[in-house]
Structures are given as C-alpha cells and as structure tokens.
C-alpha cells in the first residue's frame, strides 16, 4: 500500500471514497457511475470493489449489477447510533419479554443480505444461543419467515434465491403454505430449524407506512418456546407487536375499531 503525504494510507482513503460516493447518492449505483464520479481507473476500481464486497462493506445486486452499502456498514451503524429511534423503543420490550419467559429475546432487522440480529436481551433468563449482534438468520428461522412474509418480493429476491438453493422442493412448498397462516395470525414459529432442541417464535413490527421495521423473536429450548398462537407467550408476543407498531404510527383493524 502507498501512503499519502500526510502519512495516511491512500488505499484506505480511496476505498472510503467509493463508500461515500454510494452513500451520498442515496441509491444503488452502477460500476460506470462510480467510475465516472470517483475518476478511479477501471482496473483499480474493480480491485477496490472486489475487496469491499469481500468485507461486506458494499453489496452487489445480481439482478441489475448495481452497488449499494453492505450489511457490515448497517451493523456498524446500528452499533454506533442504536438504529436511531427503533432500537431505543424496542429494547425495553425485549427486556420485558426476556424477564417474562424462559427465552432469549431478539430484535431482528433487514439488510441487503438478509435478516440480522440487531439487539439481544438475555440478562434475566434465557438460552445462550451463541448469536451476537450482526448474526445472519436463515429463511427457515421464525425471523426469516417474518421477512419472507411481509417484505416486498423485490427486496428479498436475492436473499430468497440463495436460501431456496438449500431447500428441497417440498420444504419450499411448505414455507409458501405457511406464509398464508403467518399473514393471518401475525406470528411465525420455527421448531428446531438450526439446532436440535432449540426453537423460536417471531412477530412483525410495522411503521405508519405499513413497512416492516423488523421482527421480535423469542429463542429457547423447544419446551419453553410457544408453537401455537393461543399459548400465553404467543399472545404476549402478538400484543407487544401491536403496541410497538402502534407506537410507530401503524394502523390496523384492531386499533381502528
């Protein structure tokens, strides 16, 4: 690596210039647009972008070839500012859910590469699931099912395509059928999707535009996690989801009556 006259690492400045260019334009950019704006020669720009992709600082949409900010930047941003108002509002509810159940409580948000854990509450009781902030969650998790159900299909296209590659046709069909129940009941369940004996349940959080902000998730030993909508913990999750969504301006039939 070369250094500039101020003893800074020039390559680092150049990489950051690419990230800043994408951020400042507020939309995904094509390679040619980035090259024109940054004036970096094509050969070097390919190398920089390849490295940024490897580090998940930049994301490439396979459908149209455009580049946007990557999941690692989302993770770092959430750590730095608490995902603005959302984390601050959600955290007390996570603590309450953790205290009232035998489960670890998570808040899961969306990135271009799929759902990731944004907050964890396991201070009182709860299984140490080995997850940390920034951990990616798969489609077959209850959190994954929430995003599969309520996020726009064009947003989840790349992630869903990648997840489908790991599933049998029968598993895909089962998920598609289950999605209708999730829409109706506003809760998703996943019995031991990743680790034997560990299950989860999740509910969506919406804002005033009816956009999905994230998922509240309980994870624990299968015996402690609800699997039916009429269980007490399920009803607690659903009521918490409704209260939080209402606080973000979401209007549904329950609150309109």
Automatic annotation (TrEMBL):
Transmembrane segments: none
Keywords: DNA-binding, Transcription, Transcription regulation
Domain HTH iclR-type: 9-71
Entry-linked SUPFAM superfamilies: GAF domain-like, Winged helix' DNA-binding domain
Transferase keyword on record: no
Sequence ranges assigned to domain IclR-ED in this UniProt record: 72-250
Coiled-coil blocks: none
UniProt name for this protein: IclR family transcriptional regulator
Lineage start: Bacteria, Bacillati, Bacillota, Bacilli, Bacillales
